[in-house]
Design a protein that fits this description.
CATH class of one domain: Mainly Alpha
Shape: elongated
Structural class: mainly alpha
Number of helices: 10
Radius of gyration: 19 Å
CATH architecture of one domain: Alpha Horseshoe
Largest sheet: none
Distance between the termini: 42 Å
Number of strands: 0
Order of helices and strands: HHHHHHHHHH
Oligomer: single chain
């Protein structure tokens, strides 16, 4: 907790300096507000996080062209807070706005599109729409397969997401196949006591029990 208060103190000082030095709608002020929002988000103070993310967003809307990647990041940040708060329809709305910008600004298989697809998939998963979740998780996975080396942990996360969605749909043999792929990569790429390894092992045990 001490680290967060230190970070807040640092970013708030930075904000005061930036406010004095720059005009009120300068993008750097947006960055300052974003940084403070990020700390509040990590602390679990979602209303404060939203307040600062929205201040940042208002500045970006005035200062940047409508398809600027920073605007997409800003929509994504706001979507993430709503996702954490369990307001999934709001989360989806902002994640989709973010994704639309990325789609216009980036080539179709750009690595930055993968987290965007994953976020949308995650919201559908939380909402219990596992087929939709799968659709977006698979889109993310296709991009990662092209962009990353075969034992990259991010690919394992992707296999894990797909496995959990199949498990929730009741397709346990498919779930097991993807979770085992995830475990295999995590074991090659992470230290043996990493929490991700334990989590996937637990998921595999749960699927085996259901089978």
């Amino acid at each position: 907790m001490g680290d967060y208060s230190k970070a807040l103190e640092f970013y708030e000082k930075d904000l005061e300096i930036t406010k004095k030095a720059l005009p009120p709608n300068h993008p750097s002020l947006g960055t300052s507000y974003n940084n403070i929002g990020g700390v509040y988000n990590n602390m679990g103070d979602y209303s404060k996080a939203l307040e600062f993310y929205e201040k940042a967003h208002k500045i970006y809307e005035k200062a940047l062209p409508p398809n600027h990647p920073d605007l997409a990041t800003s929509y994504n940040n706001i979507g993430g807070v709503y996702d954490d708060m369990g307001d999934y329809l709001k989360a989806l709305e902002f994640y989709e706005k973010s994704h639309q910008i990325y789609e216009k600004a980036l080539p179709p298989n750009h690595p930055s599109l993968a987290p965007s697809y994953s976020n949308i998939g995650q919201v559908y998963y939380h909402m219990g729409d596992y087929s939709k979740a799968l659709e977006f998780y698979e889109k993310a996975h296709k991009i990662k397969e092209k962009a990353l080396p075969p034992n990259h942990p991010s690919l394992a996360t992707s296999y894990n997401n797909i496995g959990l969605a199949y498990s929730s749909k009741g397709d346990y043999s498919k779930a097991l196949s993807f979770l085992e792929k995830a475990l295999s990569i995590f074991q090659k790429s992470l230290p043996p006591n990493h929490p991700n390894i334990k989590t996937v092992k637990n998921s595999i045990d749960n699927v085996k029990k259901k089978m």
